[in-house]
Design brief:
2 copies of one chain form a homodimer.
Chain A (H helix, E strand, L loop, with lengths): L22 H10 L4 E5 L2 E4 H17 L7 E5 L4 H12 L3 E4 L6 H10 L2 E7 L3 H7 L6 E5 L14 E2 H7 L15 E6 L9 E5 H15 L6 E3 L7 H4 L1 H7 L3 E3 L6 H10 L4 E4 L1 H8 L13 E5 L6 H9 L2 E9 L4 E5 L11 H8 L4 E2 L5 E6 L4 E2 L8 E6 L6 E2 L3 H7 L5 E9 L5 E6 L3 E4 L2 E4 H9 L4 E11 L3 E10 L7 H11 L8 E4 L12 H15 L1
Parallel strand pairs in A: 1-11, 3-4, 3-5, 4-8, 5-6, 6-7, 10-11, 10-12, 12-13, 13-14, 26-27
Antiparallel strand pairs in A: 1-2, 8-9, 9-20, 14-15, 15-16, 17-18, 17-19, 19-21, 21-22, 23-24, 25-26
Helix pairs in contact in A: 1-2, 1-9, 2-3, 2-6, 4-5, 7-9, 12-13
Chain lengths: 545, 545
């Protein structure tokens, strides 16, 4: 093919091309809104000018101790200013941020530090005990964060102190975008509900687009006040750290999710946005009515992490919180799907609206495609709201792959789509509804029972705080549903009451055969650990049989 | 350097990478909001499902007649649905859209068609007379658009008719993103206020990011109702065609900018957004008061194309229109700078707010950098609001370069920055204020006089509709300012009245020495043709001397 004039003397150069990186959002915020408040943490306040300078100081300090392209810096931090700064400073140095789940044990943490070849660890003093064990025998430079807002136990365990590192750093550190926007920006280990943790590698381009995707999907205007209820260790806070910078917003930090503290911060700082798993919303709903008194403005909440019970969506809306239901995975930079609302839905009865809003929805505009395929044939399931297939994605907010795991990477991307492992139906309007993870479908007498559907029914019982339904091996039916139910404070209910409630609200064969009361075990990210429950019923069944 | 695990088995593939293209926004809008209204043109209405199908039909029709990668398809269209569709359909076929300025003469148009190697022309019947001349002797396939909303003169001149082409096209045409997001998407000729038109080549990546940049800068929420007062032939409608798709908005088409028609459409369709040159806003302001009566909602307006007189900004704000002052060039995909408002400005007196808002402002967050440099030394001017330098940009919303013009491209990108040719000062808060194009600075007795500053003063005179100030050669002072003034309908003023008004409002040496009343000549995009005026005073001066 002869070369075209459109391809001649029209190459990339320093003036017309820059690698996409979400770090650039902070440079912009500091340039345009230097005096605006970037963050509030207890009595500490920062402006964007200050936060940008702190990040550059951090980057220069990290560069001095060897953080550069493809070098992993792990962080074990609560949702503090330092955690936010790490999301920019490590990338400015060229490194890869690996956020550690603060609820894990030393063995799991040690696995991640080793697998990710972490050269540096930034750790909050409150996690010293577990981190001291986790780094045992590792050659790693440890930087301690001693948060003035934290006065609990824990010794400094490192050779460097965060504020001292910053004090010696260069506030004008000349960071540059990565040489290639495909360069890794983050390494995040999956929470391992189904097997060994895998190291999800994401890149600068994707992080940039994911931040924008969240802003667009959420209609997030300039200057949001963002409450950090979503752990930043979880998918980089769903990429919201970078999104807040892109909107010159204000971060309201939070070391620990506590419903009363959240409501107090929402009222005091007029928080406009926050996110959380359904349990966070359930906890908020159970707070005393007077805690909502000071909140007169609109609060936008992302609800995600698991399909929210319709009852929770309904109740939050009645409280005046505007709920956006989202779905995604660590592999898709957090949210990549949203139940985008149609204005015409506003005219529908509440229950119908809740049903529509209870679906996971449609892809973010920055993701190229999302669909429900039969994983055997790789053909789309009919959009009938009934046929179950696997949710698959493709596009720019899909990970690079799993670190040092070409087999898993190849399997995840088989056929040109990212396989989520989540089962769903496609509705006629193009909205998906998750039915379950593959393992969470209960097959009883040849009929598929969605454990989510059963959970949704149980959740509507006024005494129920949380619940989980799993399959129990059954000699006659193959499997039957068994429900684990956590009641509200002071509430009391019987097994037959819960079962009767289910039978009133769904096909009888779907109702649980057993109900077990007590706390429901959760992963560190708030997901219910169904594998633990499955183990429990399997042992119980073994004894029964 | 040994290869890193972060670079190993983690390559781009079909599941995790897609070339950025603004065409994808329409696919998304049609998938998520198929039933929403995408466009209104007189009695015609379209949904996003229909518009997407029409664009795919267009793409398939164009593909059949040879439009493919790097093939130019020129369009000579008013702001109609077909013009919008061309912005997607041509790109879906892989081609390059070349929007022709509908106010140009046949010679200028012929130059562009030849220089751009246009293989296809889509032309509105109303432009047949000039286009028949322009294509004389060219081997080009002509597609006529016969807009039912147009009933004026003009014959079809082509071999194909637009609706017939669509009728035969494939509504499911399997378009793909470009092989490389750097591929050309548009070719736009500069309006040539200072010399020969140059062919600005832009690419898919930049168009995607520019669309997002506009959304972010404008805080454009979902479902805007966008009135097409900005000609789509001008920088692809400032990339707003693509932005409206990304927000699933509604296009309100407009064949001709007419203030009464605009106000009527704004009221009837509750238009939320539109843009225009200052003259468009001046025309609106001069409409009878009753035309504003039906407008009770907030209307957001971009004002650009030339620095708006502060008086216009003030008056529009009093009318309840929310003005965003933007600046950019064809080379930066239209707007790349915006006078982003700081909430604290709201507390200032109107005049001070207007002064702050009258500046061009700060870069879009999607552009890597904007600065004011001394073009000789390439060093930043001091941010003192006084020292004049040249506005320069770098980043992803800067063009690929000029077609078949490596010399101009190289000059434009010298030193790693795109040189705008516009002169400005940098204020201490990082906001730029355009002082003039290089040629528009008047040097009088060794003092620099900004012609814009003089124009701003004249514009505040209540009888003035429009004005332009240029240098007149002067044997004593070198140059002196001369003002061309267009009065409002029915208004009457004398030279001495205007000069006295200026002397009251600025340093006396800056006041014009002469005032010439009459219509001010404009380019087809509404920019005042200062070179015409300069010629006029030069000839006059020659006679005087």
């Amino acid at each position: 093919m002869p070369s075209s004039p459109f391809d001649t003397h029209l190459d990339r150069n320093a003036a017309n091309y820059a690698a996409l990186t979400p770090v650039s959002f902070m440079a912009w915020a500091a340039e345009v809104y230097p005096e605006r408040v970037s963050g509030i943490h207890g009595s500490r306040r920062f402006t964007w000018r200050e936060t940008y300078a702190r990040c550059r100081r951090l980057a220069s300090g990290l560069a001095k101790i060897g953080v550069t392209r493809n070098v992993t810096a792990s962080v074990m931090l609560a949702n503090t200013p330092e955690m936010f700064e790490a999301h920019f400073g490590i990338a400015m140095a060229g490194g890869v941020i690996n956020t550690l789940n603060t609820r894990l044990d030393a063995d799991a943490l040690a696995f991640m530090l080793r697998h990710g070849d972490a050269k540096v660890l930034i750790t909050d003093r409150s996690f010293s005990a577990v981190m001291a064990k986790a780094i045992d025998g590792l050659a790693i430079t440890v930087i301690d964060v001693d948060d003035p807002e934290y006065d609990g136990p824990g010794e400094c365990i490192g050779t460097l102190e965060y504020e001292a590192l910053l004090a010696e750093g260069d506030p004008e550190f000349p960071w540059r975008p990565p040489a290639d926007e495909w360069d890794a920006i983050a390494l995040s280990y999956t929470s391992g509900t189904t097997g060994d943790p895998k190291g999800v590698v994401t890149h600068h381009r994707g992080a940039y687009l994911a931040a924008i995707g969240n802003i667009l999907a959420w209609d997030m205007p300039s200057f949001p006040v963002y409450l950090w209820s979503v752990p930043m260790f979880h998918c980089n806070g769903w990429c919201h750290a970078w999104a807040v910078a892109a909107r010159a917003g204000t971060n309201v930090y939070l070391r620990k999710v506590d419903p009363l503290a959240m409501l107090e911060l929402i009222a005091r700082h007029r928080v406009t946005h926050f996110g959380g798993a359904p349990i966070v919303h359930s906890m908020l709903l159970n707070a005393p009515e007077e805690c909502f008194a000071g909140i007169s403005h609109t609060v936008n909440c992302y609800i995600a992490g698991a399909a929210p019970p319709v009852a929770v969506i309904e109740a939050m809306e009645r409280r005046g919180f505007r709920i956006s239901h989202i779905y995604g995975l660590t592999e898709t930079y957090g949210p990549a799907t949203m139940c985008s609302k149609h204005p015409k839905w506003d005219e529908l009865p509440t229950a119908e609206r809740a049903r529509l809003n209870g679906r996971q929805g449609v892809r973010f505009s920055v993701e190229e495609g999302m669909t429900v395929l039969n994983p055997e044939t790789m053909l789309p399931v009919p959009a009938d709201g009934e046929t179950i297939g696997e949710v698959m994605y493709r596009g720019n907010i899909t990970m690079k792959g799993y670190l040092k795991n070409p087999t898993a990477t190849e399997a995840a991307f088989a056929g040109g789509w990212f396989h989520t492992g989540d089962l769903a139906v496609m509705h006629p309007d193009g909205y998906i509804k998750i039915k379950d993870r593959s393992k969470d479908i209960i097959i009883s007498g040849g009929e598929n029972i969605s454990s989510l559907e059963v959970e949704d029914a149980i959740h509507r019982h006024p005494k129920v705080m949380a619940c989980a339904v799993v399959a129990q091996p059954d000699p006659k039916w193959g499997e039957t549903p068994v429900a684990f139910v956590e009641l509200k404070n002071g509430a009391d209910a019987t097994e037959s009451e819960i079962i009767a409630h289910c039978r009133e609200n769904m096909a009888h064969f779907k109702a649980p055969k057993r109900v077990i009361f007590g706390p429901v075990p959760r992963t560190s990210t708030g997901k219910i650990q169904k594998f633990v429950l499955r183990e429990r019923v399997r042992s119980a069944a073994a004894i029964d049989v």
